[in-house]
Amino acid sequence: MKHLSIALCAAAIFAAAAPASAHVTLGEESAQAGSYYKASFRVPHGCDGSATTAVSMRIPEGVISVKAQPKPGWTVATEKAAYTQTYEVHGKPVSEGVVKVTWQGGPLPDDQFDEFAFLAKLPSDPEAMMLFFPVEQTCEKGSIAWDEFAAPGVDPHSLKRPAPALMLIHGEGHEHHH
């Protein structure tokens, strides 16, 4: 019964955290804590009719071993920095890594969509339930920062520019699956 209550609570959190389809979203909005995860961000439109020319994602603390996926017609760059703590990857300590991924190029017309992806290892910390990935979408004219986080009890659909969110699933699973 306890597991059912936890599952229902997690489902309620996930349903409340799912952003509207007109926003930048993750293709898979939940994943096993401690697993390797392909974060695929859907960019559904440009900026008020203007084509997208760059997309940047900030990587939350605890998400490590980030490897950006190349895209034809786009250049990809990563920014590295020190983590606030040391993590272990394949038995080795890691204290710095990718904290931001940026794709530039295209352009991606306003009436088309595309996906931008990277592979990363998710945190296994049982206290981590949600991860937020702030996105900066730059267009030929203007930009949009998808960087708003819903506070507990706030409907994310009420936000104008919600950051893509990932719910971590804790419990049975293969934490080291690639």
UniProtKB/TrEMBL annotation:
The residue ranges of the YncI copper-binding domain are 23-168
Q: Does the keyword Oxidoreductase apply?
A: no
Residues annotated as signal peptide: 1-22
Q: Which UniProt keywords apply?
A: Signal
Q: Which Gene3D superfamilies did the record assign?
A: Uncharacterised protein YcnI-like PF07987, DUF1775 (2.60.40.2230)
Task: Cite the InterPro entries for this sequence.
Answer: YcnI-copper_dom, YcnI-like_sf
The record's listing under Pfam families reads: DUF1775
- Signal recorded as keyword: yes
State what protein this is by name.
Nuclear export factor GLE1
This protein's species is Parvibaculum lavamentivorans (strain DS-1 / DSM 13023 / NCIMB 13966)
